[in-house]
Amino acid sequence: MKLRAALGIVLTALWLAPLNAVAGSLRSDVLSLLPAESGEVAFLDLQALRGSPHYSLIKQRLLPPRLSNFEQFMRSLGVDADQELEWLAWAYVPPGPEHPDELFMVLAQGEFVPEKMEQGFLQKKLSLDTYRGQTLFPFARSTGGQDLFFTFLDSSTAAFGTRPSLELLLDTRYGAHQNLLYNDTLLAHLNEVNGHAPVWAVLDDYYTRVAVHQLLPEAGKFEEFTRVADRLRSSILRLNLDKEMTLSFQAWCAEPLDAQVFSLLLQTGLAAQSWIVRESNPALSSILGHMRVNTAGERLELRVAMEERELRALLELPPLP
Questions:
Q1: pLDDT tens digits, residue range 173-202?
Q2: Interior/surface letters 79-104, b for 16+ CB within 10 angstroms, e for the rest
Q3: Beta carbons of 229 and 209 less than 8 angstroms apart
Q4: Which end of the chain is more exposed for a tag (fewer CB within 10 A), N or C?
Q5: What is the pTM of this model?
Q6: Same domain as 143, residue 49
């Protein structure tokens, strides 16, 4: 993951929030497609992004490369993703006994014409594959078994990922594998954010640990930070649209004392990181300086409100490393 990519998308959505404050939602039938082992589920309402004059820059800088490649491939077959996609959602499954590599699956809702896509493949004399009666369209080849495929779940929903990822998705769809409804941790958080924010992500303990180390490298230098971070249970990243536009990252710790220690370390790390980038990235430095950390029992929240000038400056800067 990609918390840095998700964070960039959320920052952009803050810029766009007044244009479309009504949050879309991930359909319940789509959620039931995701495997129970999913460690991260994220949602992006593309309809909110299209109202921005910076739409092209947003796609170039912030969308994951795999999504951009998929969009380009669809366009080569006559499908205009810019006009036909309504939202994107993705899930990551951490490595496990049954699959040593991380799995990822992306779902998209839009106005698709599966017959048109298949006809385009046949005209280009491209080979097709199948699994559980579903046609799998290959669109990116790579070494190490990481070829990418996509399939249509219905006329308005497409999915893509590696072959093992799509096989797990389809096994889940047809009842051969437990779905996300058996994941109590993520399900509880999904009920908090789905339909209540245009951009959100929910993460389990594994991806939460990855996220905090990526987002706050300076805080990660403290030995106590690693001890507390390794005991994190879950987290939520979301865009809140109330009277002000705010970005919120909430993490659940093992116990209240961990949350208090984590809060002090985060505040120290934020201050250090803000100082380090003060000249190279003053917009990011300002945002880091505005972040506030609060605790309530086992929960810790990192929250920031941003000004328009800061968002504009961020969009004009190169992507975060």
A1: 999 999 999 999 899 899 889 988 878 899
A2: bebeebbebbbbbbbbeeeebeeebb
A3: yes
A4: C
A5: 0.83
A6: yes
